[in-house]
Amino acid sequence: MCPGFLATAMVRPFLDDPELNKALHAKSPWPELGTAEDVAQATVFLASGDARWATGSLLTIDGGYTAP
């Protein structure tokens, strides 16, 4: 799992600063930050039988932040 910026207490200082918040959102194609629940849902998928062929892979969960 490779989560991106999530709306958590750890990034709260960035979200509370209007300039940093704007810069963070400007780099992402998604209109909002992900949550821990978003990462948890992807983890549940990988732990399920539906992902039985997903082996030896990294799953980036960042709302497109690192997309080319």
Notes on the structure:
With 68 residues, the protein is mainly alpha-helical. The protein has helices spanning 12-16, 18-26, 36-47, and strands spanning 2-3, 60-61. It is elongated and about 45 Å long.
Shape: elongated
Q: What separation lies between the terminal Cα atoms?
A: 19 Å
Q: What is the H/E order?
A: EHHHE
Oligomer, anyone? single chain
Our Rg estimate from Cα atoms comes to 14 Å
Specify the biggest β-sheet.
2 strands, parallel
How many helices in DSSP terms?
3
- Mean pLDDT figure: 88
Strand neighbour order, sheet with most strands: 1-2
**Low-confidence spans: pLDDT under 50, at least 5 residues?**
none
**Helical proportion?**
25-40%
Strand content: 5-15%
Number of strands: 2
Structure classification: mainly alpha
Structure described in brief:
Helix content is 38%, strand content 6%. The protein has 68 residues and is mainly alpha-helical.
Q: What are its keywords?
A:
6% strand; elongated; mainly alpha; two-stranded parallel ribbon; 68 residues; single chain; 38% helix
Strand and helix map with partners:
Elements: E1 2-3, H1 12-16, H2 18-26, H3 36-47, E2 60-61
Parallel strand pairs: 1-2
